[in-house]
């Protein structure tokens, strides 16, 4: 991305952060407040990453040896996603999984009837569960390209 594109993305992320903070005021449950808080944290992390990229771009323009680091930061940002509820990692080689960065859990069981692999799956929250965040999440993904996942592990 160019400097201008990064500046526009920065402005959009900051704007969405303000929208989410304003929307949080109308939350009537702790669950919705927590979802708002997590979205704000995710947006703040994306904002910090874009600020780093913009600083590295300025360093490259002044002749500094930051091009390699800039490439890495840009690649990392390209994989950026915001998870509002549960994050599920599955290692298909070892048949283990973990939820929200906890310890790895073995999903492989075996008994006289055979071998069973039982990993949880992510189930997306409904628009009713997300409330007013449903449209905000869609807008963030559409406007910034950063996916926002709102799912629970079951």
Question: In brief, what are we looking at here?
Answer:
The chain has 154 residues and is an alpha+beta fold. Helix content is 53%, strand content 18%. It has 2 domains: 3-84 and 126-153, no CATH class; 86-124, no CATH class.
How would you describe what is shown here?
- This protein has five helices and nine strands.
- 53% of the residues lie in helices and 18% in strands.
- The strands form four sheets. Strands 2-3-4 form a three-stranded antiparallel β-sheet, with no helix packed on it.
- Helix 1 packs antiparallel against helix 2 (30-61) and helix 1 packs antiparallel against helix 5 (133-144).
- It has helices spanning 3-24, 30-61, 67-78, 127-130, 133-144, and strands at residues 82-83, 88-91, 96-99, 105-106, 108-111, 114-117, 122-124, 148-149, 151-153.
- The protein has 154 residues and is of the alpha+beta class.
- It is flat, with a radius of gyration of 19 Å.
- A hairpin with a 2-residue loop joins strand 5 and strand 6 (114-117).
- The protein folds into two domains: 3-84 and 126-153, no CATH class; 86-124, no CATH class.
- Keywords: Plasmid.
